[in-house]
Specification:
The complex is a heterodimer of chains A (about 70) and B (about 180). Chain A has a single domain, classed as lambda repressor-like DNA-binding domains (434 Repressor (Amino-terminal Domain), Orthogonal Bundle). Chain A is mainly α and about 70 residues long. The termini of chain A are close together. Chain A has a two-stranded antiparallel sheet. With about 180 residues, chain B is mainly α. Chain B has one domain. Chain B is built from 6 helices and no strands. In chain B, helix 3 runs parallel beside helix 6. The longest helix of chain B is centred in the first third of the chain and has 34 residues. Chain B is flat, with a radius of gyration of 18 Å. Chain B starts with a helix and ends with a helix. The chains are: A mainly alpha (about 70), B mainly alpha (about 180). Chains A and B meet through helix 2 and helix 3 of A and helix 2, helix 5 and helix 6 of B.
């Protein structure tokens, strides 16, 4: 069965009132990378996942989960 | 002066001219590192397929010239210019690119997603190169193919495929949901 890494990046980002560009700047990537992670097009590395979770004030498990 | 050297010089001059134009176009515009990286990344997504078309059209010229007569001076110059373009495109594919930009911009424009896209494009390029090499090998069983023609075909398919694939992936990545 295909597994997909789901996330609540968009919701959390909206809660904090951050734009994709602002979040990207906080974690040191381009807006494009945040966009692809949000849309599930790109699976981030553990390093980036930890950085994103840290920037959004959540744990990695709260931000990402595997959708079965 | 040898025609090959003239071609090499012309190829290098064109590359330097393009680099200078690109640099001058963004000079003086007050952009932060993130904005500049975003701008360059979007421009690269647009440029990659165009570069592939230019590169492939150069191959078409090469093969139409080769089929006529031997190596005249103009052909030698074209071959050298093609070599320069191939090396520059390969270097752009294998490195962060944007060599005249500051390090922080280059690092940001080559972030995780870009590296993943580039690796995927290189994988496609390698597979297409190998596929073309196999096709050329089979072709030699029925027809004569010179070493230079074979190299042109293998390099063209590999580099052009990598450029197109990278362009598609980058454009897709920039597209909003």
């Amino acid at each position: 069965m295909p597994k997909r890494l789901a996330n609540r990046l968009k919701e959390r980002r909206a809660e904090l009132g951050l734009t994709q560009a602002e979040l990207a700047e906080r974690v040191g990537v381009t807006r494009k990378t945040v966009n692809t992670v949000e849309n599930g097009v790109f699976t981030p590395s553990a390093t980036l996942a930890i950085k994103l979770a840290g920037a959004l004030g959540l744990s990695v498990e709260q931000l990402f989960w595997i959708e079965r | 002066m040898s025609s090959y050297l003239i071609g090499l010089g012309a190829g290098i001059a064109v590359v330097l001219l393009i680099a200078a134009i690109v640099k001058l176009r963004t000079r003086g515009s007050p952009m932060s590192v993130a904005e500049k990286a975003e701008y360059l990344s979007k421009r690269r997504a647009r440029m990659l397929p165009a570069l592939a078309v230019i590169f492939l059209s150069q191959q078409a010229t090469f093969f139409s010239q080769m089929s006529s007569s031997g190596h005249i001076s103009a052909e030698k110059a074209k071959i050298s210019a093609w070599l320069v373009l191939s090396i520059v495109l390969l270097a752009a594919l294998a490195s962060k690119g944007f060599w005249l930009e500051p390090k922080e911009v280059r690092d940001l424009v080559d972030d995780e997603n870009t590296r993943a896209n580039r690796n995927e494009a290189m994988r496609w390029g390698f597979l297409f190169s190998m596929g073309t090499a196999i096709a050329v090998y089979i072709l030699t069983m029925f027809d004569t193919v010179t070493g230079r023609e074979a190299v042109h075909l293998v390099m063209s398919s590999g580099i052009a495929t990598a450029l197109i694939r990278w362009g598609i992936l980058e454009r897709r990545a920039h597209k909003d949901a």
